[in-house]
Amino acid sequence: LPTSASDYLSDLNAQQREAVEYGVGTPAASPALLVIAGAGSGKTNTLAHRVAHLVLNGADPHRILLLTFSRRAAVEMERRVGRVLQKVLKLRSGVAPSLQWAGTFHGVGARLLREYAGRIGLAESFTIHDRGDSEDMIGIVRHELGFSSAQTRFPLKGTCLAIYSRVVNSQAPLSHVLQTAFPWCSAWEAQLKQLFDAYVQAKQDQHVLDYDDLLLYWAEMMTDPGLAAEVGGSFDHVLVDEYQDTNRLQAAILLAMKPTGQGLTVVGDDAQSIYSFRAATIRNILDFPGQFAEPAHVVTLERNYRSTQPILDASNAVIQQSTERYAKQLWTDRASSQRPLLVTVTDDAGQARWIADKVLENREAGVKLTSQAVLFRTSSHSAMLELELTRRNIPFVKFGGLKFLEASHIKDVLSVLRWAQNPRGRLSGFRVAQLIPGIGPVSAGRVLDAMASAPDPLAAMQAFQPGSAAQEDWRAFSQTYEMIAGAGASWPADLELAIQWYTPHLERLHEDAAVRRGDLDQLARIAATYPSREKFLTELTLDPPDATSAESGAPLQDEDYMILSTIHSAKGQEWKVVYVLNVVDGCIPSDMSTGTKEDIEEERRLLYVAMTRAKEQLQLIVPQRFYVTQQTGMGDRHIYGSRTRFIPDSLLKLFERMPKPPQPAGLAERGLTPEAAKIDIASRLRGAWK
Ligand code: ATP
Ligand code: MG
């Protein structure tokens, strides 16, 4: 190794370096590694360096599994690893190898399940349902069981799916989940059991897996000792970022992959655990060291490289009121005289105006839009701001928002592809068949039944005779279907075929067909970047592209645009300037979460995550009028907002308040002489006697 080649390690502090180099020379004698540390201490950065260091010391990049929280995080991590490798390998005049296995648990699970489908009795062509599809499917099953009548007030399909998902991910009994998280549904326990049984059966019959199944099947596969050894053995190193937000199933999968802990690295921060509504459990990270025969090696990082001291002070103060965390000391040498701002505005509109003003001011001062982000609790909270930004021509991209893929015309076209991929997929079949005029739910059901039981689904489709009004269109569709599903199909020409077939229906169904046609073109452009239909459908379902602002137009690659994101989706990221919307009680903590102490603690961590995204400037906005809608089956409720309980008066000194809190004004400022003031008071007192 040329001497300067290991310079990449000299950028790291001693603890980071320890984590990067741990066990590299002696893998067989090294228990698992846990890096537990606060926000911005370089956990992700350290993980990237560790991967690069492993590769530079001979590890095969094809046998490294890197699990991140989002696809975006995986791409970013690969970029960081690549940068280190490039720097070193340039000196050795080699080409940086790329990682083959970097992604989310769900994405990696989907890939492994296709690979091992034959071994575990799964159809290789299984369809993956996103949350919307799963809701629809559970809704259909619920209807078929007769649970959906308005009088019975049976939980809505979204609630049913949420309960199901919670049961599956927490591996807790239904009764427990109902009691603790959905008490208003407890009366329906027996029916819910029946519903879930039927839902599981429907998925099996139709070769469908939902998000939860990707983890469930993977975990189940790993309970077979032979398969576990095979899957686990195909990776020398498994590394996980944001471990605090994994659930029991994910922990079980990791343990099955690396039962001794050797080759396993996890990093995380218990103070940033914010996904318990998806059954993530903070216990995973706290219990990690003790779950192996030889306890894991623990490294803690204490220096924060991200934020200025005043931002760190305020964030630390917010999280330190919490009782249930690993005590951590964070320090930084990034001094600044600017305290975080606590801005009071009248309402939503005032909030939007304030932010738009400050964004432009910051841009004038040289802070690019891409270095500024607005964070909020719930996607819908940014609506007013989106209007304001659009009005002022400030381009933005929204993360974690309503997905492009949820639009009905996009779903229609994707359903054609999915149905062709999996002829037994009833949800997509049902949707597509009914696009044809003259085909309603009854005929659609008939053709799907025929296709489900026939040895050759395509022949069954072609033999189907709908009512005379629909026959012509049905024949045309069958031909398109055959071309897409058939052996000669090529990608992405299939998508073009589907769009061509769909276009007359689009024009018939939607007044704004031209706009929607633009979306389909966009879909085709996205599709062209995927190597195959299968990969396209899988990844699109698991990791939809971020929604963009339709009115201002999707920003071009090199255009400057700002980020709007839910706090949940902002995990792990950082910006120079961060604005947080609606820092009021009823929002953070959200009104629905005022239930248990644990829920409140999670909301506190959420605020901590939001605050610690800021590098140089942090602005928390407090609208005086904030309306919440409560949807716990009890109807809506509106409240007036007041500053979040997580910033009590005792912490105000850590913030700069805007507008300045009114000082008791002196007489001179009020334009009064002492004499006039006396008269003023006296007259008021006189009035009180009347
Ligand atoms: P989070 O908890 O929010 O996920 P993290 O602990 O993963 O944060 P990183 O995102 O890895 O932190 O790092 C935060 C910032 O600090 C990044 O900009 C990173 O480049 C920088 N950083 C990390 N380590 C060092 C270092 N040794 N020297 C200089 N900068 C560093
Ligand atoms: Mg990180």
TrEMBL record:
<dbReference type="Pfam" id="PF13361">
    <property type="entry name" value="UvrD_C"/>
</dbReference>
<feature type="domain" description="UvrD-like helicase ATP-binding">
    <location>
        <begin position="16"/>
        <end position="308"/>
    </location>
</feature>
<dbReference type="InterPro" id="IPR014017">
    <property type="entry name" value="DNA_helicase_UvrD-like_C"/>
</dbReference>
<keyword id="KW-0547">Nucleotide-binding</keyword>
<dbReference type="InterPro" id="IPR013986">
    <property type="entry name" value="DExx_box_DNA_helicase_dom_sf"/>
</dbReference>
<dbReference type="GO" id="GO:0003677">
    <property type="term" value="F:DNA binding"/>
</dbReference>
<feature type="binding site">
    <location>
        <begin position="37"/>
        <end position="44"/>
    </location>
    <ligand>
        <name>ATP</name>
    </ligand>
</feature>
<feature type="domain" description="UvrD-like helicase C-terminal">
    <location>
        <begin position="309"/>
        <end position="572"/>
    </location>
</feature>
<keyword id="KW-0413">Isomerase</keyword>
<dbReference type="GO" id="GO:0000725">
    <property type="term" value="P:recombinational repair"/>
</dbReference>
<dbReference type="GO" id="GO:0005829">
    <property type="term" value="C:cytosol"/>
</dbReference>
<keyword id="KW-0378">Hydrolase</keyword>
<protein>
    <recommendedName>
        <fullName>DNA 3'-5' helicase</fullName>
        <ecNumber>5.6.2.4</ecNumber>
    </recommendedName>
</protein>
<dbReference type="GO" id="GO:0005524">
    <property type="term" value="F:ATP binding"/>
</dbReference>
<dbReference type="InterPro" id="IPR000212">
    <property type="entry name" value="DNA_helicase_UvrD/REP"/>
</dbReference>
<dbReference type="GO" id="GO:0043138">
    <property type="term" value="F:3'-5' DNA helicase activity"/>
</dbReference>
<dbReference type="InterPro" id="IPR027417">
    <property type="entry name" value="P-loop_NTPase"/>
</dbReference>
<dbReference type="Pfam" id="PF00580">
    <property type="entry name" value="UvrD-helicase"/>
</dbReference>
<comment type="similarity">
    <text>Belongs to the helicase family. UvrD subfamily.</text>
</comment>
<dbReference type="GO" id="GO:0016787">
    <property type="term" value="F:hydrolase activity"/>
</dbReference>
<keyword id="KW-0347">Helicase</keyword>
<dbReference type="InterPro" id="IPR014016">
    <property type="entry name" value="UvrD-like_ATP-bd"/>
</dbReference>
<keyword id="KW-0067">ATP-binding</keyword>
